[in-house]
Amino acid sequence: MNKGFKRINQKKISDQVYDQIRGMIQNGQLSPGEQLMPERELAELLGVGRSSVREALLKLECLGMVDQRHGEGTFVRSSAENDLNPAFETFLKNHESIYDLMEVRFVLEAWAASTAAERANPDQIAQMRSCLEEMAKAKLKGKIGYELNLEFHRLISVATHNTILIHVTNALSGWFQQVTAEVYVKMYEDPQIQDILFLQHQAIVTAIEKRNREEAYEAMVKHLSFAANIFPKQKDDHE
Question: How many alpha carbons lie under 13 Å from residue 167 in its C-beta half-sphere?
Fold first, then answer.
């Protein structure tokens, strides 16, 4: 008499792939903005067929956990990320609340820099240094680019090993980028400002590398204060 017991079916391979990638995103092993390896390499690493990987990635994309970009690859999305409500976007663009958003960044990113000084592993510090090298190369060509700045701040948040903070700061950066992109792109094209920003980024990484929490905190505050102070001027020039 089976008393209602049901036979246990083996879980689909694609579901196992999905579970593994989802778990890595949720626990911070895969961070927002990070690119996954190509399907073929991922299939070889996991010992499964490409169709199983493809099916798992499609499921993750449907849930908003990854973004598959044609010709570029698959990137991890923030679990806190979503498109701005049009009314909220208008509110940010035309109200002093944009400065409220800046203040929130001060609180979170200064803490992130301080905490990264304590928790960052050697590989993460090496990635920050690599990002600085890319900035230096871009600066020689006359344009650092807003994208490298976003990547720099993302790397610092990842180095906190605080999964919630990683996703929240990524969402804040996304919102901030949407409502200030045109102004900040112009700011990053100014050679004098590029020099200042590069030195500030360098100071932050140096403090993190030295494991000096207070110095990292102060370096990030100085950097964000500079950006906040120059923002009104760039906005006025743009308008």
Answer: 17
